Amino acid sequence: TMKVLRVAFLSSFALEFLATVSIAMVAVLVGFRLLWGDVAFSAGLTALLLAPEFYLPLRKLGNAYHARLAAVAAAEDIADILEASAPAAGDTRSFRPDGAFPVAFEHVDFAYAEGTPVLHDVSFEIPAGRHIALVGPSGAGKSTLLYLLLGFARPDAGRVLAAGDALGDLDLSDWRRRIAWVPQRAHLFPGTIADNIALGSEGVTGDAIVTAAGKALADSFISRLPHGYDTRLGEDGAGLSGGEIQRIALARAFLRDAPLVVLDEPTASLDMTSEAAVNTAIEALAKGRTMITVAHRLHTVRNADRIVMLDDGHVVAQGPHKELARHQGPYRELLDASLPAAMEAPA
């Protein structure tokens, strides 16, 4: 990335300098021609106005070079995926739990590349119907745990268990139907708000969509839109604020009515007002479900049943917020570094 940026910036600087000098030379020549009476004023003015446009493609060439290299890098990644062989289909069974179910990580190790481990002997349990928060500094392995839970990758060692069944023994499509996932930045597709809420849920009715939006505190702003739930959105939710997009993502989770809810820093990019609304909706969503939340803002997970703190791929602390905050340790240090003085003391 740094090599690409270095070449892109140098090439942009060179092309901008060349274009600027060329336009200046045109201006000087036009000025002398006007002074000598060789050209009319209208012709000279036209030449001055056209000169920047003439060199505009040259000035854009540096940006095009940067975009080209980024596209080449993306294409290489896509080629790797297309050339990869599909995982061997083993004997898998369907997963049909009755209500909320427990999840557990048993001695899990994982590395994205050989020699660079991300998780080391991670073990903890999530009882059925409880809310567990994963916290820790950036790069601690929180999102990696979610990827393993969602089946995007498999552990190098250890097991991920759902209701006592190893995830590797379950049909992944059937497993994922039991999960409602709200990522850090939910993606909205071009289409109506109703279509975006119903994404991933089959055979839903308009009344069910409105009910889910009401539970996610999204109905109030949707109703104020010109066409309500039929309002068409641009790419990635163009026209809505970050808080409104997250509430639509939560409405998807309510509509899906899955027994396991996974939240990946759902309030990371929101202002305090939007964050409060989203947190209220999350508290309602957690009732009767097993929930896992990844968070950087520790005050957003103070009410979690248990907090699991990761650091450098290891579980370094776990327990309720009050207990962890009461004693000196890695969680207390993270709390002191992240919260204002007024919020540092245990509740």
Could you characterize what this model shows?
With 347 residues, this protein is α/β, with parallel strands linked by helices. Helices cover 46% and strands 19% of the residues. The chain has twelve helices and twelve strands. It has a six-stranded mixed sheet, with helices on both faces. The protein has a four-stranded antiparallel sheet with strand order 2-1-4-5. Helix 1 (2-36) packs antiparallel against helix 2 (41-83) and helix 6 (206-215) packs across helix 8 (242-256). The longest helix has 43 residues, at 41-83. It is elongated. The two termini are 45 Å apart. The model is unreliable at 341-347 (pLDDT under 50).
Helix content: 40-55%
Largest sheet: 6 strands, mixed
What's the alpha carbon Rg, rounded to whole Å?
A: 27 Å
Number of beta-strand segments: 12
What is the rounded distance between the termini? 45 Å
Based on secondary structure, the structural category is alpha/beta
Contiguous runs where pLDDT drops below 50 for at least 5 residues: 341-347
Mean pLDDT: 82
Q: Helix count? A: 12
**How do the strands line up in the largest sheet?**
6-9-10-3-11-12
What form results from the Cα inertia axes? elongated
Amount of beta strand? 15-25%
Give the SSE string: HHEEEHEEHEEHHHEHEHEEEHHH
What is the gist of this entry?
This protein is α/β, with parallel strands linked by helices and 347 residues long. It contains 12 helices and 12 strands.
